[in-house]
């Protein structure tokens, strides 16, 4: 008994004809008949009888066909799985990103990709950049997005975006009519600040210090999205990445800030094992997703 005999039997049972079985398998009718005879000899019983021009399977053949169908269903599942793996549509991928990216933007940007990959199991963690670098180095996640550079022999690091922080104002704020906000103009504004362990806070505070401006911290929040929520409700102003607060487009405005405050986003991956095809495809999609905010090339656009 060999796979070609099983294929000939399976195709004949499916099509009800030796001729059509040969067409399905891409071989001649005599070749199918020869395989069927060999299979019947191996089994030790008759598989088909003639009824006029029709080929009728015996009871024994129908019993055997149930198991053969299961076998071929299994091989078809394996073939579909192999095809999904080859097309990077199957597997497990874990990503960790700072809250500014993970809270809202990545969910919005990656949803179309994941909708097209129903067999891909995706995990997104919100972590601080120092913790993300540790997770990548320990191979506990497949992809890390960090605003801190990381030099480690077991980690590959690539800058995928350099974004410019923007000034976030209530839509009816007196400064909203300006296209560029100077740090000096925020001197007396109630400021919605991020927590002290946020990696962007040091850069923001430095910009105020360079200009000799005292920042009036009124409210401290853990997330940039939360800061935008307070700004939308008129509680103050803030400085945030351009990709946060997108759900408040009617209540807040984003304005260019001078001097500029820029931050890099690094894509980190473990290099001690080959990345899965699914992880490679997702990393490529992330590069495309952040491209609209990458200020390393092209003009700045604020809305």
UniProtKB/TrEMBL annotation:
Gene3D superfamilies: 3.40.190.290, Winged helix-like DNA-binding domain superfamily/Winged helix DNA-binding domain (1.10.10.10). Keywords: DNA-binding, Transcription, Transcription regulation. GO terms for molecular function: DNA-binding transcription factor activity; sequence-specific DNA binding. GO terms for biological process: positive regulation of gene expression. InterPro entries: LysR_HTH_N, LysR_subst-bd, WH-like_DNA-bd_sf, WH_DNA-bd_sf. Residues 1-58 form the HTH lysR-type domain. Coiled coil: none annotated. PANTHER family: TRANSCRIPTIONAL ACTIVATOR PROTEIN LYSR. Belongs to the LysR transcriptional regulatory family. This is LysR family transcriptional regulator.
């Amino acid at each position: 008994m060999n796979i070609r005999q099983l294929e000939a039997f399976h195709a004949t049972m499916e099509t009800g004809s030796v001729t059509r079985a040969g067409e399905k398998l891409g071989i001649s009718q005599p070749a199918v008949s020869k395989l069927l005879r060999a299979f019947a000899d191996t089994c030790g019983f008759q598989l088909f009888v003639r009824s006029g021009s029709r080929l009728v399977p015996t009871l024994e053949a129908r019993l055997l066909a149930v198991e053969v169908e299961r076998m071929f269903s299994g091989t078809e599942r394996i073939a579909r799985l192999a095809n999904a793996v080859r097309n990077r549509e199957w597997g497990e991928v874990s990503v960790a990103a700072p809250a500014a990216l993970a809270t809202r933007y990545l969910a919005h940007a990656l949803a179309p990709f994941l909708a097209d990959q129903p067999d891909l199991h995706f995990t997104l963690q919100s972590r601080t950049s120092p913790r993300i670098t540790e997770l990548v180095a320990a191979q506990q996640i497949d992809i890390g997005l960090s605003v801190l550079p990381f030099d480690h022999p077991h980690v590959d690091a690539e800058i995928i975006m350099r974004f410019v922080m923007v000034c976030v104002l209530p839509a009816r704020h007196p400064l909203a009519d300006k296209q560029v906000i100077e740090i000096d103009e925020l001197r007396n504004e109630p400021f919605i600040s991020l927590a002290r362990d946020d990696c962007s806070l040091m850069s923001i505070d430095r910009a105020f210090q360079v200009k000799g401006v005292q920042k009036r911290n009124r409210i401290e929040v853990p997330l940039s999205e939360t800061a935008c929520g307070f700004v939308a409700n008129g509680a103050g102003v803030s400085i945030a990445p351009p990709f946060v607060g997108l759900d408040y487009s009617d209540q807040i405005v984003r304005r260019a800030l001078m001097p500029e405050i820029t931050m890099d986003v690094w894509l980190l991956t473990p290099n001690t094992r080959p990345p899965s095809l699914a992880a490679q495809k997702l990393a490529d999609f992330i590069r495309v997703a952040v491209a609209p905010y990458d200020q390393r090339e092209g003009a700045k656009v604020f809305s």
